[in-house]
Structure formats: C-alpha cells, structure tokens
From TrEMBL:
Keyword set, alphabetical order: Amino-acid biosynthesis, Hydrolase, Magnesium, Metal-binding, Serine biosynthesis
Cofactor list: Mg(2+)
Name of the molecule in the record: phosphoserine phosphatase
Lineage of the species this protein comes from: Eukaryota, Fungi, Dikarya, Ascomycota, Pezizomycotina
Active site: 124 (nucleophile), 126 (proton donor)
Molecular function in Gene Ontology: L-phosphoserine phosphatase activity; magnesium ion binding
Top class in the EC scheme: hydrolase
Source organism: Arthrobotrys musiformis
Pathway recorded for this protein: Amino-acid biosynthesis; L-serine biosynthesis; L-serine from 3-phospho-D-glycerate: step 3/3
C-alpha cells in the first residue's frame, strides 16, 4: 500500500478560461476558502474515478482550521501500490473540471521523504522570478515592443520554436544601447514577482541550492542571482558592437532553450550530488516544460493554459511563497522560514 498527497490551493489569480476544450465549461464558483462542499466534491471525484482510492487525513496548511483554510493537504491511500492511479488522476478530465469550477489548483505527489527534502530548485526568470519579459522591454528602446511581445507570447504558448523565435526577436534589437541592462535595473522597469525574495530565503534556510535558467539574457540573470542569493545563473548572451555602444541583434553561443534548460538542470544536480527526485523546476512557459518533467517535481506558475495542462503541477497565485505549500509546509512554518 502506498500514499500520495493532494495539495489543494484556492487560486488567487483566477483562470479566465478552462485549460482544455469543453463544449460547455462549468460556471466558476467563487469562494473565500476551501469549503466542505469543495472537499466533498474532491472526495467524490477520487472515489468516482478510482473506487479503490481512499482519502485519509485532511490537513489545513494556510490556517490552523479547515474552516478558514485556502490551502489544504489530503493524504490519499492507493491500496494497489501500483502508482498508476496518481498518473491517471493527473490527466483526468474530471479533475480539470473540478479545478476550473472551484478555482482550485490541485498538486499530486507521492508522499515520500523527497517531498519536503528538496535540495535543488531551478527557476525560469522572465514572468517567473521577475514580472516582465525582458526582451519585450529591450524592444521598447527601438520602438518595436508590440511586435516583439506578440512573438514572445506565441513562443511562451508553445506555438513557435523558441530558438528560432529568439533569434528573430533578437535581430529586432539591433541598435539598442549597450547600457540598456543597467538602465532597466536602475529605472524600476524590472520588478521581482511578489514572494520571490521570501521563497528564495526560505529555500536557502532549508539548505537548497538555487539556480535561474533563463531564455532571457545573462546581465539580468546575474543581477537576479545576486539579488535573490542564488547559486547559479545561465542565460543567453547578446553581441555588442565593436565600439561597445550598441547591441547588434545577434545571440552568441548556445541558446538556453527548453532542451538546454533540462541539460543544465541535470548538470547542476550532478555537480551538487543531488538526487533528481529532490530537484524542483518552476516556470511559466512552454520553454520550461522539458525541465519541469526532468525534475522530481515541476510547477507551472501563473502559466499559459496549455502549459498548465501539460506541466506536472500548476499554481495560480499572487505570490511565489505559496510554492512552499506544495512541499507540505504550513503558514506558521513558512513564516518561521522567512522571518
């Protein structure tokens, strides 16, 4: 007999449409906490889809009482010990309908020692650790932000090849002053996602190594690394003109695309002697899906609908610190970690 956990979190950034095609999507139900109705609906879903699954303990995470909790954890017993149920339940249409109807994110994980004992966490940068897509902000300097942003949006949804789209967008940056990264850092254009500092502080206190693996650019990745106390930063390099004054629009070296992120994740884990089951990957775009699947646990944070559907788990929240609920920590424990 084996156990797995379901962490249910009330989404604080409501999804505007279901992450799947449905002829008649249900009407979302507003709630300020995870009500008995929601818990009963989830229990019914589990027993309806898999009659041999048993719901065991409900634990409030965000508050001391289940009656007010916006994040709860339930232990689910799999008497067959097959592991098949958790994989099938993740892809179940009934589960997706439940999430959309009640505006709930459900993260399913094996209830093992590796769940809380994370040792390496890797992050995407743009729209994950920071709130902007940096290449779009660079494009504003030469008046092509809208054009570049449209390509970025399509690439993040997985509609375009990332490598090709990056080269085409970078080409539009020819003539941008080489001081642009310093400008973006100093004028307040680049802002950290709420909870980024707290999450990284908590993870460092837990002994985790942290990395940013970005399809963006190295100067800002290094700044993010320094600001958040990360251990590694890998991103792309833009060529600078011979006189040092402008960007040429050429990307140098290997592009940090989806496959490269997965390779870097494994290389860092090997270097640090970390079991892949203790690695977490957090991102928001299609470019992050490969590393999410490679890691022991992957989280799509405020991601596009297609990415949420394909990622190992998803979280729609106003703050990155809520990632800690997925590891089983309570609000009181999180406060202790970030204090």
């Amino acid at each position: 007999m084996s156990n797995f956990t379901a962490t249910l979190l009330l989404s604080s950034t409501p999804r505007k449409s279901p992450p799947y095609t449905a002829p008649q999507p249900p009407e979302p139900i507003d709630s300020t906490h995870i009500t008995p109705e929601i818990r009963d609906a989830f229990a019914y879903l589990c027993t309806k889809v898999y009659l041999n699954l048993l719901l065991d303990t409900w634990k409030p995470l965000s508050s001391p009482s289940l009656s007010t909790a916006t994040a709860v954890e339930v232990t689910i017993i799999d008497p067959t010990n097959s592991g098949i149920q958790i994989r099938a339940l993740k892809g179940c249409m009934d589960l997706k309908t439940f999430e959309y109807t009640y505006n709930i994110d459900v993260a399913l994980q094996l209830d093992s020692v590796y769940r809380k004992q994370k040792r390496l966490v890797v992050f995407d940068m743009d729209s994950t650790l920071i709130e902007q897509e940096v290449i779009d902000e660079l494009a504003a300097f030469v008046g092509v932000k809208d054009k570049v942003a449209a390509i970025t949006e399509s690439a993040m949804r997985g509609e375009l090849d990332f490598t090709a789209s990056l080269r085409s967008r970078a080409a539009l940056l020819s003539g941008v002053p080489s001081t642009v990264f310093t400008t973006l850092k100093s004028n307040g254009t680049i802002t950290f996602t709420p909870g980024a500092h707290e999450l990284c502080k908590a993870l460092k206190r837990l002994g985790c190594k942290l990395a940013v693996l970005s399809g963006g650019f190295q100067p800002l990745a290094e700044w993010v690394k320094s600001s958040l106390g990360l251990d590694y930063a890998f991103a792309n390099t833009l060529e600078v003109s011979a006189d040092g004054k402008e960007l040429t629009g050429v990307v140098l070296g290997d592009i940090v695309n989806a496959e490269r992120k997965a390779v870097l994740l494994k290389e860092i884990a090997q270097k640090e002697g970390v079991d892949i089951r203790q690695v977490v990957a957090v991102g928001d775009g299609a470019n992050d899906l490969v590393m999410m699947r490679e890691a022991g646990f992957g989280v799509a944070f405020n991601a596009k609908p297609k990415v949420q559907e394909e990622a190992p788990s998803h979280l729609n929240s106003r703050t990155l610190r809520d990632v800690l609920y997925l590891f089983g920590f309570t609000a009181a424990e999180i406060e202790e970690l970030v204090d």
